[in-house]
Amino acid sequence: MTAPPAPLGLLAELTHRCPLRCPYCSNPTELSRASAELDAATWGRVFREAASLGVLQLHLSGGEPAARRDLAEIVAHAAAAGLYSNLITSGVLLDAARLRALAAAGLDHVQLSVQDAEEASADRIGGLSGGHARKLRFAAEVREAGLPLTLNAVVHRQNLDRLPALIDLALQLGAGRLEVAHVQYYGWALRNRDALLPGRQQLDAATATVAEARRALHGRLVIDYVVPDYHAHRPKACMGGWGRSFLAVSPAGKVLPCHAAESLPGFDFPNVRDTSLAEAWSGSEAFGRFRGTDWMPEPCRGCERAEVDWGGCRCQAFALTGDAASTDPACSLSPHHHLLDLAVREAAAAPPDFTYREMGAKAAV
Ligand code: SF4
Ligand code: FES
């Protein structure tokens, strides 16, 4: 077997602890306890191994990474390893002093999530009263600290109509980039799918809004936007293909091809406590299982897009068909594609109530 290409990005999930309770959280069904988390020194070793492997970008995520009191020490390890570090945060646990300490430790970039442009709705979706106002203050503090800011808006049926206001918010807050990220339906989000899935009309209006804003704001704001899977004809190349350019490490040290893979049954994922990142990447069965095209079933096998989308998302294939090795149902060539249309129809008639993410609770895979 030829050696896999070097990974470019590492997602370090520092903790699953989080003060927010978003119903679309993509964390796995079994959340790690604080006592199981890797310590800062071990993260430092992981970062050095990642840099040796070829990783350039490090995403510090969670849960809420600022729930770690040793976050500045972890950031310093990233800087010492020569990695470009991006903090993915809800912003509600960081004050100006801590932010300055992170900047001094070498943090390169901040990605702030918002739940909506309207305060009451944002606080309801995030399950934290006062959260939105705190985020707005935090965004100003990020800019005062001289750090570049990306705003991440996870969109769904209950906030998509306010996409124009979310774009305005990104401009007001001084963000250079806005990610309009449709909910991905794994973990907690799958349990809440009926309350979150947008219909076709709402989606088309949002897509037109993005196209117009991109034209009007060219050179001022970059807008990332991908059509959501449930309205797609072809799947996304999830993670750029399994084990091709990206790896994640869970709070307890599991090395994963994507942040949601921990929920897939029948895998023995390597752990950084007893395996090097290089060995996990190149030698583990878990990374090799869906790498390349040899594993593909029909209709992917021989398809002209096999090396474009790599058969789509393994976690979505498992969530919808029970088989992680099947074609992603987001593909209209999949025999399971009708499940997506069915889900959209059922969601249209469903109430807007959420099941909020909680430690100790178990969501659907
Ligand atoms: Fe992609 Fe497979 Fe669909 Fe072809 S059949 S477009 S490879 S998901
Ligand atoms: Fe796991 Fe797509 S989220 S492969």
Automatic annotation (TrEMBL):
Q: Subunit details for this protein? A: Interacts with PqqD. The interaction is necessary for activity of PqqE.
* Keywords recorded for this protein, A-Z: 4Fe-4S, Iron, Iron-sulfur, Metal-binding, Oxidoreductase, PQQ biosynthesis, S-adenosyl-L-methionine
Cofactor(s) named in the record: [4Fe-4S] cluster
Family that this chain belongs to: Belongs to the radical SAM superfamily. PqqE family.
Q: Pathway, per UniProt?
A: Cofactor biosynthesis; pyrroloquinoline quinone biosynthesis
Q: How is the cofactor bound?
A: Binds 1 [4Fe-4S] cluster. The cluster is coordinated with 3 cysteines and an exchangeable S-adenosyl-L-methionine.
Q: Which domain of life is it from?
A: Bacteria
What PANTHER family does the record tag this protein with?
PQQA PEPTIDE CYCLASE, RADICAL SAM DOMAIN PROTEIN
Catalytic reaction list? [PQQ precursor protein] + S-adenosyl-L-methionine = E-Y cross-linked-[PQQ precursor protein] + 5'-deoxyadenosine + L-methionine + H(+)
Tell me which species this is from.
Muricoccus vinaceus
State the protein's purpose: Catalyzes the cross-linking of a glutamate residue and a tyrosine residue in the PqqA protein as part of the biosynthesis of pyrroloquinoline quinone (PQQ).
What region holds the Radical SAM core domain? Answer: 4-220
Q: Would you tell me the protein name for this molecule?
A: PqqA peptide cyclase
Q: Name one Pfam family in it.
A: SPASM
**Keyword Coiled coil set for record:** no
Q: What is its EC number?
A: 1.21.98.4
